[in-house]
Design a protein that fits this description.
single chain, 4-stranded mixed β-sheet, 14 helices
């Protein structure tokens, strides 16, 4: 199989680099300065064993590849706010022997949140969800890093909306040879909703910096409590913290990487790169949406969604709001719902 990684950033770049490192054929798809750096200098993958350089085929879209192959696997790793454009760009690409990518090729959504699979299923017949537990960083064009060892990450995967098949097992086997654990599960959404609860802190971290003191930690607990209340009201199943810990154990332990400070997660990295967009609408915004559908107030998640979008739109510095200021606003938001 050939893996075409659409969005070779923190997640896509690390997954693509690790697959290439274990001998698999990989094409990276990127844009702008990142595309230019990958094309000119290769993918610089910083991991605990050092910096690895992979000279891989790079494209800035489907036009550069022409007709796709029947054994291609598409890995969608863009931020959810970029999913529609990416899906529309790749769906109609012809595949050798007849048909289009949407009709014939498997599409794995290696993304945060739960919305991209639904978006993909409108166009693609074979859609797979991936629950991404992969501490990784992309802030410099051409460079991605992953500080976990002995495993780089854990990637639960399965068919969307449910089920498993031979393609999922083949991809899992390739990932298993590439520094990942990749359980194939029939209920991948249950793991993704658990990950969503964890990702509700991404906006908080992006706005105020790493959650390091008791004031920020207490606020994060309240934000996640809103999330669990919403999922419970909606009757949506999610893996428990105990179940997640049993799977993770000490398999992905973070170690310092030379020249690669990990200042924050994906939302923090978006602000640091100054992209002008952020994925809060599909993290905290998912909780706000479900809250409105099921009559559960979500003032804290709505506040974080608003602030994250404001920071992205105005290109404010990541982590520049004092925690005390955010807590004050959170208390005001809660008072407004009483």
């Amino acid at each position: 199989m050939r893996y075409i990684v659409i969005g070779a950033g923190a997640v896509g770049g690390v997954v693509g680099g690790r697959l290439a490192g274990s001998g698999h054929e990989v094409v990276l798809v990127a844009r702008g300065a990142h595309f230019e750096a990958l094309r000119e200098h290769g993918l610089r993958l910083r991991v605990p064993e050092g910096e690895l350089v992979h000279r891989l085929p790079v494209a800035d879209g489907p036009g550069a590849l022409g007709e796709l192959r029947p054994d291609d696997v598409l890995v969608l790793a863009v931020k959810t706010q970029d999913s529609v454009a990416a899906l529309q760009a790749w769906a109609a690409v012809p595949v050798a022997g007849g048909g289009t990518a949407a009709e014939r090729l498997p599409l794995f959504c290696a993304q945060n949140g739960v919305e991209s699979q639904r978006l993909a299923l409108r166009l693609f017949r074979r859609v797979y969800g991936v629950c991404v537990w992969l501490p990784s960083t992309y802030v410099e064009p051409g460079v991605v890093s992953a500080a976990g060892r002995p495993l780089t990450g854990i990637l639960h995967l399965g068919r969307h909306p449910h089920g498993t098949d031979e393609t999922a097992r083949l991809v899992a086997a390739d990932l298993g040879k590439s520094h990942f654990e990749a359980p194939v599960v029939a209920d991948v959404a249950r793991w993704q909703y658990a990950k969503l609860l964890g990702n509700l802190g991404n906006a908080l971290e992006a706005v105020t910096g790493p959650v390091a003191d008791e004031e920020a930690t207490a606020l994060l607990r309240r934000v996640r409590a809103e999330g669990t209340a919403v999922l419970d009201a909606a009757g949506i199943a999610y893996a428990s913290a105990e179940e997640q810990q049993a799977v993770r154990g000490d398999k992905v332990t973070l170690v310092p990487l030379d020249g690669t400070p990990r200042g924050g997660g994906s939302s923090w990295q978006s602000l640091t790169r100054g992209t002008g967009t952020i994925e809060a609408d599909y993290l905290n915004g998912e909780i706000a949406l479900l809250g409105r559908l099921h009559g559960v107030p979500t003032p804290l998640n709505e506040l974080l969604q608003h602030l994250a979008n404001t920071f992205a739109r105005e290109r404010r510095e990541a982590g520049s709001m004092p925690v005390g200021e955010l807590v004050r606003r959170a208390d005001e938001a809660l008072a407004g719902t009483r």
